[in-house]
Fold:
Amino acid sequence: MAEKKSIGIYLTSMSMGGAERVARNLCKGLVDLGYEVDLVLVDATGELLDELPDPVSIVDLNASRVLRSLRPLREYLSTREPDILYSMMTEPNVVAILAHRLSMTDSRLVVSEHNMLSHSSESMKDQLARAGAWGLYPLADDVVAVSKGVRDDLVATTRLDSADISLIYNPVDVESIRKQASQPVNHEWLTDDSLDVVLAGGRHEPQKGFDTLLGAFSRIDAEDVRLVLFGTGPETTSLQTRAVALGIDDRVSFAGFVENPFSYMGSADVFVLSSEYEGFGLVLIEALACGCPVVSTDCESGPAEILEGGTYGPLVPVGDDSALADAITATLEDALDSDTLRGRADDFDIESSVAQYDSLFRSSGT
Structure:
């Protein structure tokens, strides 16, 4: 780098989630490029804190909720004056814009949207955040969308034009994923060569479409096929009840929180994303990096881009358990080879994504 730059990356916490993993990977890539990186957290907690590079400075705003981090974030900007403030997710983005304006800092403000705002209106908080995005996103110096679908959605739901939005796919630590995938897997079905294992995981909530997945799995009439569903959430109990009602509970394992999901991906026969919508679908790339064949709903947004319209794995209509069952069965019978799948994941590695961020940060301003 011709000039060392400082950046503050602002988000809620470092609990195990998609945006948090992206923040970890972005920290790694920017440190490697010579940036001075502050990770500015509403609440400095979470399992992923231990996975950050040593040069990253943790700034704990010590706030009980995102809105209450407005004042300490403004103080951080006024005192630290980083060259760049990079914010992640809708509510933090809104607060970051307000703090940036109030601090009157020269820091360049880059906000990144990881979700479909058109789907984020379930609660009053979601509606307020969406209204804030509509009014405030044009005040940021730069806006990043993590997929073409998210970019199109921003154009439809805010006052931004497509030309105002940079498209940068999320950075994926492909090398680290593969190392973890090679570790022993702690599940008896995944070590049994006589079984074909369908794997899925994530937070158990309506967005993820796990009820559709269970319906699809109930259509697969093969005694040697099993489903492992990791993760937890508000729908866990109802999903377990549904598995019993479908008569498949003896072939479905609710694995709960899994410390190393990549060892599961490295051993599974197919990974399924059954979501109703996504911002990007990071987990698909993680599965591909492990050489695991994938099947996905053709949901908004990300999967069709990641899988190149079905080139790297079947895409089926959202909520169609029959089509999902057919795609899973077909993939179990005839999957793409692992090298091809791993090669696609390499297109999303940290170096490629962070190079685009570096170019954006240096394009003008600071």
